[in-house]
From TrEMBL:
Family stated for the protein in its record: Belongs to the SELO family.
Cofactors named for this entry: Mg(2+)
Gene Ontology CC annotation, any one: mitochondrion
Amino acid composition bias (Polar residues), ranges on this chain: 1-10
Alphabetically ordered keywords of this record: ATP-binding, Magnesium, Metal-binding, Nucleotide-binding, Nucleotidyltransferase, Transferase
Name by which UniProt lists this protein: Selenoprotein O
Pfam family of the protein (one): SelO
InterPro entries linked to this entry: SelO
Source species: Ceriporiopsis subvermispora (strain B)
GO MF term list: AMPylase activity; ATP binding; metal ion binding
Region Disordered, residue ranges: 1-44
Length: 739
C-alpha cells in the first residue's frame, strides 16, 4: 500500500508509520512532564518497578495524594473481581503468603515482556530514533477483533498513522447484507501490512503497551489516567477519576506541531479510580460512543473523536443482566481529556458533607496553579515564556474561566440546535476545551419534546433537553468556585500566581480572595448566555436557510416552529429536512391545493398519528408557513447570483445544514443486535452507518425518489429505512448510564 498521502489544499504529509513509531511531543507539550504524578508511581521508571513487584497498587481503588493530577496506569482488561485461582499444585497458602501470590498473579498479566515493533519504512527518517518500545503480557492473549476504524479520525487527528490493511479486513460498507461471507485477512495482504495492522489492534485492544523507561528520564513515556472529582446529579461525589480510561500516547499533528492529539483507551481495565467497578466497557456502549463521536464531528459540534472499536469477545462483562456481555474498547482522541472535575479535585467545595469511598481532601493550591497554567496554555490564552519577558507573569485565571465558558457555551448551543441530549452532564463530564465528552445514555431528538429525558436513571429530569444549557452553567460555576481564590489573587495583585503562593497565606486572606474571585460569576454567566444565544441563532438560521439575523426571528419564527413540532409530536430532524423544499409560492393565492399537500406531508412526520388533531395541526402549520414565507421573501436580495434559481439555492443551503441521516436510538439498537449476533456482518453495517454519519447531509436512500420503493436497489432501500423515524415503539427510547 502507499505510504504517503496528499490531501487537496494541504502539503504532502510525512511518511506513515506504525502506531509504535508515532513521534511523541516535546517535553513542554507532555501532560505527564508538566503535571504531578501519583506519589506511589512518581515516574515511568518507578512505575515499571511497581508493575513487576506490586502491581495491585494501580488496580486497587484508593484516594490519591492531594497534589496528584494523574496516575501512571497500564492497560490490562481483565474480569473483576480478578479470577485468581489457588496454586495449581494444590499447595495451601499461609495467610502471610497470599499477598505475594496475588501480586505475582497480577504481575504475570502486566505487559512487561518486550517484543519487536512493526517495521518502519526506510524513508520514514527515524533510523534508530524510535521513542517507544512494545511490551506484552506472559499470560494475557485473549482474542481481539477489530470491529471498526474511522477514516475521518485517522485523517484529521493521526495522518501519520499507518493502519496496514485494517480497512480491508472490515469488508465493504453495506446495510443490505448478502449471505455471510468470510472477511478475515485479505489473501494478498503483505507481511508488512499484516504486521502493522496486528500491532495496531494489539495496542488499541490493551493487549500490547507502548512504553519507554530507558536512557534519559526526560524521554521516558508511560500511559496514565486522570484524577478528578465532581458533582454527580448535583451532589458532590468526591474523587472519581478515569475509572476505565487510559491515555496511551500523544503525538503532534504534522500540520501544526503545537497541536497534539492524545489517544485514550476506554474500557482497558481497572485503575486507582475504578472504585468497585471492573474498568471495562460493553460492546453496546462502545458502539454508541464510537459512532456518535464521529457523527457529532460531522454536524460541526465540538467533540472528542473516535479512532477504533475493538472487540474482546472472550472477556465477560456483567452489567444489567445475569448473562455476561462482551467487552469492547473504544480508542478516542482529543487534544486533552481534562475536565472541570480535574479542578474540583484540587479545590473541592467547602463545607460539603458527602458519603464517598474516602475522606474529603483539603485543597492543594499549588497543584491547582500548575493545572491552571497547563490548561491556559492548551487554550492558547497564556504562554509562560512570553509572560516572563515582562518580569512579573501575566494573569491567566480569569481568562481561563471565561474561555472555558465560551467554548462550552458554543458546544451546548450545537447540542440544542441539533437536538442532541447528553444524558449525564455531571461536572466530571464537562471538558475544559468545550468538547462533548463521555457518550453514555445520549440520544438525538426524535419527535420534538423540550423536556425529553434520554437517561432513564435521571428520574427528576435534571439533564432533560431543555435543561442542558442550565447544567453547563452549573458546571462552569463549579469551575469558578475552584479557581476563585486564584482569580481574586490575580485581580488584587495584578500578576499571575507564583509557585507556593499559598504557603504563608492566612485563611482570612484566602477567603477575601475567594470572595473577590466569585465576583466574576455575573460576567461569566453573561458570556455564556450571549455566546450560546448567538451560536444557537446562527445554527438555527442555517437550518432554516435564512441569511440575515433579525431580532424578532427567535420569537416569530424559531420558537413557534418548535412549539408546532412539540404540540403535534412531529419529527424534529425530518421536519427541518423537509422544510428545505418549501417554496414561498406555496402560500400564494391559487396554490391552496399544493399547500395542503405540503402540509399533509409535514403532518405525516408525526410520531403519534392516532392522537393527531389534523385540523388544528394543519391550521397551525399553515399559519407558521405563511410567516416563514414572508421572512424568506424579505431577504430574496441576499441570494446574489441566484436570480431565477432562488428556491433551488435555498434548498441546497438548507440541505447542507439539515441532516438526512441521524444516529437515532433505533438505528443504534439495530446495529448493536447485529454485531452481537454476527460480528462479521456487523462490521460492514458499522462501516456503512459510519459512512452515513460522517456525511449526514447527503441524499441517502434516493431521497427525492417518489416511485415504487420496491424497484430500488436493496442497499438504497435500506439506506432509506435507516433515514426514517423508525418504529413508533422506539420513539423516546431511554438508556442507562451503563449504555
Amino acid at each position: 500500500m502507499s505510504k504517503t498521502i496528499s490531501t487537496a489544499g494541504r502539503m504532502s504529509q510525512p511518511v506513515r508509520v506504525p502506531i509504535s513509531a508515532l513521534p511523541l511531543p516535546p517535553p513542554t507539550q507532555r501532560l505527564p512532564r508538566n503535571l504531578t504524578p501519583d506519589p506511589e508511581t512518581p515516574s515511568p521508571a518507578a512505575w515499571r518497578e511497581v508493575l513487576a513487584a506490586r502491581p495491585s497498587i494501580q488496580r486497587r481503588a484508593r484516594i490519591l495524594a492531594s497534589e496528584a493530577h494523574f496516575s501512571f496506569v497500564s492497560p490490562c482488561p481483565q474480569p473483576f473481581p480478578f479470577p485468581i485461582p489457588p496454586p495449581a499444585d494444590g499447595t495451601q497458602l499461609a495467610d502471610a503468603d497470599k499477598p505475594k501470590y496475588i501480586e505475582n498473579w497480577l504481575a504475570q498479566r502486566e505487559a512487561l515482556t518486550e517484543v519487536p515493533c512493526a517495521p518502519v519504512p526506510e524513508n520514514a527518517g527515524l533510523g534508530d530514533a524510535r521513542e517507544l518500545k512494545k511490551y506484552v503480557s506472559e499470560k494475557r492473549d485473549d482474542r481481539r477483533e477489530l470491529l471498526a476504524l474511522s477514516e475521518g479520525c485517522l485523517r484529521d487527528c493521526f495522518p501519520r498513522l499507518d493502519v496496514g490493511d485494517a480497512f480491508d479486513t472490515l469488508g465493504a460498507p453495506a446495510l443490505a447484507l448478502p449471505a455471510p461471507e468470510t472477511n478475515g485477512v485479505p489473501e494478498k495482504s503483505s507481511g508488512e501490512d499484516d504486521a502493522v495492522r496486528q500491532e495496531l489492534i494489539d495496542v488499541l485492544s490493551g493487549h500490547a503497551m507502548l512504553m519507554n523507561t530507558d536512557g534519559d528520564p526526560e524521554t521516558h513515556w508511560a500511559p496514565w489516567s486522570l484524577r478528578y472529582s465532581g458533582h454527580q446529579f448535583g451532589v458532590w461525589a468526591g474523587q472519581l477519576g478515569d475509572g476505565r480510561a487510559i491515555s496511551i500516547i500523544s503525538t503532534p499533528h504534522p500540520d501544526d506541531p503545537k497541536l497534539t492529539y492524545e489517544l485514550q483507551l476506554k474500557g482497558a481495565g481497572r485503575t486507582p479510580f475504578s472504585r468497585g467497578a471492573d474498568g471495562l466497557a460493553v460492546t453496546r456502549s462502545s458502539i454508541r460512543e464510537f459512532l456518535c463521536s464521529e457523527a457529532m464531528n460531522a454536524l460541526g459540534i465540538p467533540t472528542t473523536r473516535a479512532l477504533s472499536l475493538v472487540s474482546l469477545p472472550e472477556l465477560p462483562v456483567y452489567r444489567e443482566t445475569v448473562v455476561p456481555e462482551r467487552a469492547a474498547i473504544v480508542a478516542r482522541a482529543a487534544p486533552s481529556f481534562l475536565r472541570i472535575g480535574c479542578f474540583e479535585a484540587l479545590a473541592p467545595p467547602q463545607g460539603v458533607f458527602f458519603i464517598g469511598m474516602g475522606q474529603q481532601q483539603e485543597a492543594d493550591w499549588d497543584a491547582l496553579r500548575r493545572l491552571g497554567e497547563w490548561v491556559a496554555r492548551l487554550l492558547g490564552i497564556w504562554d509562560e515564556a512570553e509572560a516572563r519577558k515582562d518580569g512579573e507573569r501575566k494573569p491567566w485565571a480569569k481568562d481561563l474561566v471565561l474561555e472555558v465558558a465560551r467554548r462550552n457555551a458554543k458546544m451546548v448551543a450545537g447540542w440544542q440546535a441539533y437536538g442532541f441530549m447528553h444524558g449525564v452532564i455531571n461536572t466530571d463530564n464537562v471538558s475544559v476545551l468545550g468538547l462533548t465528552i463521555d457518550y453514555g445514555p445520549y440520544a438525538f431528538m426524535d419527535v420534538f419534546d423540550p423536556w425529553h429525558i434520554c437517561n432513564h436513571t435521571d428520574e427528576e429530569g435534571r439533564y432533560a433537553y431543555k435543561a442542558q444549557p442550565t447544567m453547563i452553567v452549573f458546571a462552569l460555576r463549579a469551575l469558578l468556585n475552584s479557581l476563585a481564590p486564584l482569580v481574586g489573587y490575580e485581580a488584587h495583585e495584578g500578576h499571575a500566581i507564583p509557585p507556593d503562593w499559598s504557603s504563608s497565606v492566612t485563611a482570612a486572606k484566602l477567603s477575601e480572595w475567594r470572595d473577590k474571585g466569585m465576583q466574576l460569576k455575573e460576567e461569566m454567566e453573561r458570556i455564556v448566555e450571549e455566546v450560546s444565544a448567538a451560536e444557537y441563532g446562527k445554527l438555527m438560521h442555517h437550518r432554516l436557510a435564512l441569511r440575515k439575523y433579525e431580532k424578532e426571528d427567535e420569537t416569530r419564527i424559531i420558537s413557534p416552529l418548535l412549539d408546532l413540532l412539540g404540540e403535534h409530536k412531529l419529527d424534529f430532524h425530518g421536519t427541518f429536512r423537509l422544510l428545505a423544499t418549501f417554496r414561498p409560492s406555496l402560500v400564494q393565492e391559487g396554490a391552496s391545493a399544493e399547500l395542503a399537500g405540503y402540509i399533509s406531508t409535514i403532518l405525516s412526520l408525526t410520531g403519534e398519528p392516532q392522537f393527531l388533531n389534523r385540523e388544528k395541526a394543519a391550521g397551525d402549520a399553515r399559519d407558521w408557513l405563511q410567516r416563514y414565507a414572508a421572512r424568506i421573501e424579505s431577504e430574496r436580495g441576499e441570494w446574489a447570483g441566484a436570480e431565477g434559481h432562488f428556491d433551488e439555492a435555498r434548498a441546497q443551503a438548507a440541505r447542507a445544514a439539515n441532516p438526512r441521516f441521524v444516529l437515532r436510538q433505533w438505528v443504534l439498537e439495530e446495529i448493536i443486535k447485529k454485531v452481537e449476533s454476527d460480528a462479521e456482518g456487523g462490521k460492514r453495517i458499522i462501516r456503512k452507518v459510519l459512512q452515513m454519519a460522517c456525511s449526514p447531509f447527503e441524499p441517502w436512500g434516493a431521497e427525492d425518489f417518489e416511485g415504487d420503493e420496491s424497484s430500488l436497489d436493496p442497499e438504497v432501500r435500506e439506506e432509506r429505512r435507516f433515514c426514517s423515524l423508525g418504529e413508533r415503539k422506539m420513539l423516546g427510547f431511554q438508556c442507562s448510564c451503563s449504555s
